[in-house]
Amino acid sequence: MSAADKVRIIMPTGGMATLRQLKVVDAVAELGGDDRLAIPVSEIATKVGLSASNISSSQGFLRQAGLLETHHGALSVTDAGFQLTRLRAEDSARARLFLHDHWQSAWFTKAAKRLLRQGPRQRTTLAEELGQGLPAAAPERGLYLVDWLDYALIVHVAKDGLVRLPGSIPTPPPPAAPASGLFLSSAEETMALPDDTFVAAMRAYGTLVSSLRGPAARA
Question: What's the pLDDT score for residue 206?
């Protein structure tokens, strides 16, 4: 990793779990409304029940990840951040798929893929490697970054803590479709799919919904 690369790299803040950081983005979007107004850090802190210093420390990674923008002590959501929050309110699966696509060129996506192409790693090991050589890269920050990658379906973290690229996970054949021709499953079954199967299923779902909306829109 070159010195120029290091200047651009910001790890997630420590002391604030990934889902809590997502709620910060949700709060900025909600307070800013459809006009995506910039909201003072103190107001965001009150909204989510955290200190202003917590919000300030979280904005670095969220800004670099393309979800927030800074405005002299205030924060607003980017186009991507606004869309993510809307999808999270409607369909968490589509929100994760959106973030998967949005982060394809991010440094942490490239780094994780490069490391995991060499083989699976324990979550703690991958966390250390992602933060290696970076200033203030506490182990906790690396673990939160792995959690972000897992949320965005870029990596798959198994229950035993082993991390793999989704495409390297053996996938069982899908169940036979019912007579109607549509494959239906419970939310629990869908979320339990391996990540590469989940991504493919969500893309197919999006294509199906778009095709069904087309004729209605033209009617």
Answer: 53
